[in-house]
């Protein structure tokens, strides 16, 4: 038995553990680089915006016009408040396009009553192919509000209809339930003023659970007391501050959250708008935009802006969170598969040589490697090929790095654009980020591996999402089955 | 066995370092955060007191008192700076002069001037921001008009809008060709805020032949709408570059006149859709009702934006245009029918916004 073990160890396990260890080192280097670049970028950004006056950009006659696209599906409980808040955003030249994506509830009726909508003759400049538009409405009380009622076709289709109707130089894409900070738009638009080559900017998404919300605004920030929501606070901070900001220095980010992003309208239309048959439409759009720019040899920039903040309600149930993470990972796998020819292709510059390989090796395969690592470690310990303490040290090292990564994100947030005012909230967030290592992280690994498995099996549905709503009412959102669209 | 490996000992030591680092960072978040919060709250109290003192100083007619200056001088520098920036952006006229005197008395101006000469861009930026709100008119700020950092340059260009002297205006207009987009944006905004005094320099600028610079200049000309810009706009409405033609036509829309109207009608048949769109809009703006039938023809244009602008322009012309829109609604051309129907359906408030 012992000879078999030593044969297995020397011929199989040792190679395997070296591979796992090498991968672990690669992750450390990749995350370390991103953290270093993010901190540098954050410092520069803070220095640049400190004491800045945004009112002259807001009031300027030469500021670019912005169209906000807000797709809505079964949002009757919150739509009036959301639209009122969006119309009150601090930006002078603003148009709001609400797209009712065939909601079976009273979303459209609520809009009609609250905003004095009147139908106008329905013609749309069809620059992008979409599902049929039933009716177009204009508001007599809010001249910059456009409401369109269309056949259900999913979020991507709804956004494409919005793109057909939008007239702004820039298009801001948000989820109908996203709460946008009043001054977030001028902040998000700043890179477009600073550089003519900017084609897209993304804002910071923060967790709204636990905070006091009223009138479509976050009135008082607080850390969530719900464990699952609390665990996601640190995760979001890490993902945005370190996962996106560092890319500003490394050739531009590849993901702009579908919950809050600003794009050049003509660039979006030129690249064909959102792709219908994917669950990762936000990442897909950014890659398409950049791919087109590379192919036409145009200089371009995609920028993450850390002080432009939008708030979202994160899932508070394990089942819903699992479906969300599963879908995100399927989306990532799908997008990387669609653009596989770009990976490692020098023609696509930093995106092909750095961005996409990073997303493939570090983001897509990380959960698989982590799962394999657990299995291997457990096997070695069970077979006696590895001392339990060695396994513990390895695990502690890996998760310790994760804890440092998370805490560093909290510290960077605290020193740059802090939102939590009370020590209680800071303690809560740190506490949640410590617990993230025990159980939550493992769960997300399982969900992500499941997502990858489902992608390989060809599953492309969104899964049913439930939101409690900021007033506590439970609403459900299940945009059209992407499968059905692909077949149709 | 891995367990016997010296790597284990190394791993354990590394883990100890890691734990130490993690604990330090956590303490930094909690205590650093609490300390920052305490400092912010303390600063808010100090600021509130200082705000009272500063408000009193700004509205008083008596000379600035030493006691008040001493109160302000006791504040930490960032509090003083934030306070002066806050007041500087909200007061004008005599109050700005008083604020500048106070800032000078409490040592802020000297420090800001010193910052403007720093080799670090963020210090120059902070200095320029402070001096800019104080309406400072010394060489320290003017020197930054050629700063290598676009953010610093842009800050100074913004300040320049408050200085109507010909040297600054010429410098501003010349900056319409600045390589940094942020600076070009600021220049356009500053020239628009300057208004009439900028028109002469802009007229000269429009004699240049670089299409992108001309297009930027015409954007400002449209906002300024000064009569001396009519001649360059008429000339440039026949420029080879389509964007220049479109922007020149837009300027004609704000200036009007018989000579402009004839050219606008001609431009309705331009090869470029952007120019046709601008021409349709401009005819609506100058309310040239004789061009109504030419506009009605554009309701069948191949381009959607041209049809939309033609429809809006017709409605803007009043009864003549509305009559033609109603006729178009019953015509055989589906494009014209659709656009006329939509434009006539638009609520008054929406129409005014779209036509503005």
Main beta sheet of chain B: none
Write down the overall mean pLDDT of chain A: 86
Distance between the termini of chain A: 59 Å
Spans of chain B of at least 5 consecutive residues whose pLDDT stays below 50 are none
Report the portion of residues of chain B in β strands: under 5%
Oligomer: heterodimer
Largest protein-protein interface: A-B, 58 and 63 residues
Tell me the domain tally of chain A.
1
Order of helices and strands of chain B: HHHHHHHHHHHHHHHHHHHHH
Task: Tell me how many strands of chain A there are.
Answer: 14
Could you state the order of secondary-structure elements of chain A as H and E? HHEHEHEEEHEEHEEEHEHHEHHHHHEEH
Please name the CATH architecture of chain A: Alpha-Beta Complex
Radius of gyration of chain A: 23 Å
Class of chain A, according to the CATH hierarchy?
Answer: Alpha Beta
Helix content of chain A: 40-55%
User: CATH topology of the domain at 257-356 in chain B, what is it called?
Assistant: Leucine-rich Repeat Variant
Calculate the mean pLDDT score of chain B and round it.
88
CATH topology annotation of chain A: Spore Coat Polysaccharide Biosynthesis Protein SpsA, Chain A
Overall 3D shape of chain A = globular
Radius of gyration of chain B, taken over Cα atoms and rounded to an integer in Å:
30 Å
Looking at the structure, what is the overall shape of chain B? extended
């Amino acid at each position: 038995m012992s000879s078999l073990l030593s044969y297995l160890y020397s011929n199989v396990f040792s190679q395997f553990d070296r591979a796992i260890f090498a991968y672990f080192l690669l992750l450390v280097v990749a995350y370390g680089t991103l953290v270093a670049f993010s901190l540098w970028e954050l410092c520069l950004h803070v220095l640049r915006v400190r004491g800045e006056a945004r009112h002259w950009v807001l009031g300027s006659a030469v500021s670019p016009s912005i169209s906000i696209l807000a797709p809505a599906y079964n949002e009757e409980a919150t739509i009036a408040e959301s639209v009122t808040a969006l119309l009150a955003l601090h930006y002078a030249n603003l148009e709001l396009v609400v797209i009712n994506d065939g909601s079976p509830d009273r979303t459209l009726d609520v809009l009609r009553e609250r905003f004095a909508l009147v139908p106008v003759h329905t013609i749309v400049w069809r620059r992008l192919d979409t599902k049929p538009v039933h009716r177009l409405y204009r508001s007599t009380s809010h001249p910059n509000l456009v409401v369109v009622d269309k056949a259900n076709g999913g979020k991507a289709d709804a956004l494409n209809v919005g793109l057909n109707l939008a007239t702004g130089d820039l298009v801001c894409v948000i989820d109908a339930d996203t709460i946008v900070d009043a001054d977030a738009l001028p902040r998000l638009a700043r890179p477009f003023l600073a550089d003519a080559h900017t084609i897209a900017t993304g804002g910071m998404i923060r967790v709204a659970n636990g905070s006091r919300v009223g009138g479509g605004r976050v009135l008082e920030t607080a850390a969530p007391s719900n464990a699952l929501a609390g665990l996601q606070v640190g995760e979001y901070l890490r993902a945005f501050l370190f996962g996106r900001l560092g890319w500003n220095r490394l050739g531009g980010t590849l993901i702009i959250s579908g919950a809050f992003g600003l794009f050049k309208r003509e660039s979006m239309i030129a690249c064909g708008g959102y792709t219908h048959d994917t669950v990762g439409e936000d990442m897909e759009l950014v890659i398409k935009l950049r791919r087109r720019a590379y192919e036409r040899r145009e200089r371009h920039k995609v920028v993450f802006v850390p002080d432009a903040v939008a708030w979202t309600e994160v899932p508070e149930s394990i089942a819903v969170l699992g479906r969300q993470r599963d879908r995100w990972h399927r989306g990532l796998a799908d997008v990387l598969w669609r653009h596989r020819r770009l990976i490692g292709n020098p023609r696509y510059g930093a995106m092909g040589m750095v961005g996409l390989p990073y997303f493939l090796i570090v983001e897509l395969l990380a959960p698989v490697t982590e799962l394999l690592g657990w299995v291997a470690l457990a096997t070695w310990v069970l077979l006696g090929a590895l001392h339990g303490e060695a396994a513990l040290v390895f695990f502690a090292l890996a998760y310790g790095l994760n804890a440092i990564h998370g805490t560093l994100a909290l510290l960077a947030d605290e020193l740059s654009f802090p939102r939590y005012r009370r020590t209680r909230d800071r303690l809560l967030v740190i506490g949640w980020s410590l617990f993230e290592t025990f159980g939550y992280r493992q769960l997300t690994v399982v969900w992500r591996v499941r997502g990858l498995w489902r992608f390989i099996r060809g599953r492309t549905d969104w899964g049913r999402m439930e939101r409690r709503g900021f007033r506590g009412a439970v609403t459900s959102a299940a945009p059209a089955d992407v499968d059905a669209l692909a077949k149709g | 066995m891995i367990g016997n490996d010296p790597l284990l000992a190394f791993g354990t030591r590394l883990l100890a370092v890691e734990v130490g680092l993690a604990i330090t960072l956590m303490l930094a978040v909690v205590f650093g955060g609490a300390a920052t919060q305490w400092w912010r709250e303390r600063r808010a109290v100090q600021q509130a007191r200082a705000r009272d003192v500063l408000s009193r100083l700004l509205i008083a007619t008596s000379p600035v008192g030493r006691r008040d200056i001493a109160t302000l001088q006791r504040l930490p520098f960032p509090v003083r700076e934030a306070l002066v920036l806050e007041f500087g952006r909200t007061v004008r006229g005599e109050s700005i002069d008083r604020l500048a005197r106070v800032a000078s008395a409490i040592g802020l101006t000297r420090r800001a001037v010193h910052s403007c000469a720093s080799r670090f861009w963020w210090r120059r930026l902070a200095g320029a921001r402070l001096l800019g709100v104080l309406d400072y008119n010394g060489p320290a700020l003017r020197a930054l008009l050629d700063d290598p950092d676009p953010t610093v340059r842009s800050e100074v260009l913004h300040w320049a809008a408050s200085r109507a002297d010909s040297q600054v205006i010429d410098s501003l207009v010349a900056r319409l060709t600045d390589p940094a987009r942020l600076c070009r944006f600021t220049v356009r905004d500053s020239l628009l805020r300057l208004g009439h005094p900028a028109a002469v320099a802009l007229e000269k600028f429009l004699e240049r032949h670089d299409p992108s610079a001309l297009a930027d200049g015409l954007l400002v000309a449209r906002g300024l709408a000064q009569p001396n810009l009519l001649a360059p706009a008429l000339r440039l409405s026949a420029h080879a570059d389509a964007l220049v033609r479109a922007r020149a036509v837009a300027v004609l829309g704000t200036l009007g006149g018989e000579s402009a109207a004839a050219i606008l009608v001609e431009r309705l048949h331009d090869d470029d859709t952007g120019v046709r769109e601008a021409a349709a809009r401009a005819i609506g703006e100058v309310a040239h009702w004789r061009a109504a039938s030419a506009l009605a023809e554009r309701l069948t244009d191949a381009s959607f934006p041209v049809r939309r602008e033609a429809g809006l322009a017709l409605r803007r012309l009043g009864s003549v245009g509305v009559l033609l829109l109603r006729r178009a609604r019953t015509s055989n051309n589906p494009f014209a029918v659709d656009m006329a129907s939509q434009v006539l359906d638009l609520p008054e408030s929406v129409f005014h916004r779209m036509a503005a």
